[in-house]
Amino acid sequence: MANKWLDGFDKYAVYADLTTFSYAPPAASPTFSTTSGRFGGGGVSTISSAGSGVIRPDTFALELWVGYAIKVTDTNNNDRSIFTVVSPGSSNSGLEGTLTYNPVLGIFKAWRGPVNTLLGSVTNLLTTGTWNWIDVHYKYSATVGIFEVWLNGTQILNVTAANTANNSGQTSLSAVHLGCGLGKASVPSP
What's the CA gap between 24 and 15, in Å, rounded? Predict the structure, then answer.
C-alpha cells in the first residue's frame, strides 16, 4: 500500500506547528510568516541552502504520493531540490530520488539519487511569486520504478518502468524532504 499525504503549508506560524504534524527540524531553520500562506494564514519559507526545507521522517512504503503547495521566489539560475525521497541506505545518505526545478530556465528534472542519473525532464516555467500545487508519485524499484509529477493538476513528468533505486535492497523509505533549497518560497518547496 502506498503512503499518501497532502500539505498546503498554510497554517504554520511557528516550528512547533510543523512538529505537530510529524515534520522534523531541517538543517537550516525555515522562517515563518503569519500572512504568507495561500489563504492569508501562516506559511513556511525556506532558504536556498542545502537542507533548508521541511523534512518528514517516518517509515514509508516503497511507493508514495505527496501533494504540496509551492511558491517560488528564488531567481537564481540553478537546479534546486524541491522534493527528495530518502531510504535508510548508507550511500549518498540514503537519497533515492530527487525532483529539482530551475526557476530561470523553467526546467523540472527527476533524478535517481541526489542528482546522479537523470530519469526525465520537462520545461514548464512557474510564475515567480505565484502559488502552485505539486503532486509527486514515487515508487522505489530497480526495474519498475515510477517518478511522476503533476503541476496544478496537469501531469508534466511521466517516468515509469525505470530504475529509481539508488541504494539497492531497501525495504522501506525513511524520510521525505520538501523544498530543500529553491530559495525563499512560502511553503514547502522553494
Answer: 9
**Whole-prediction pTM value?**
0.83
Give the alpha-carbon dihedral of 41, 102, 83, 66, to 10 degrees.
60
Q: Residue 157 half-sphere exposure, CB side, CA atoms within 13 Å?
A: 28
Q: Tens place of pLDDT for every residue, the chain, 190 residues?
A: 455 566 666 666 666 776 777 676 655 566 666 666 666 655 666 554 544 567 777 888 999 998 888 777 777 888 888 888 999 876 667 889 999 988 889 999 999 998 889 999 999 877 777 778 889 999 999 999 999 999 999 999 999 999 999 999 999 998 888 775 443 333 333 2
Count how many residues are written for the chain: 190
Distance CA(182)–CA(178), nearest Å, equals 10
Q: Distance between CA atoms of 157 and 166, rounded to whole angstroms?
A: 19
Tell me which residue of 112, 153, 135, 143 sits closest to 4, measured CA to CA. Answer: 135
User: CA–CA separation, 120 vs 101, rounded Å?
Assistant: 12
Amino acid making up residue 137: H
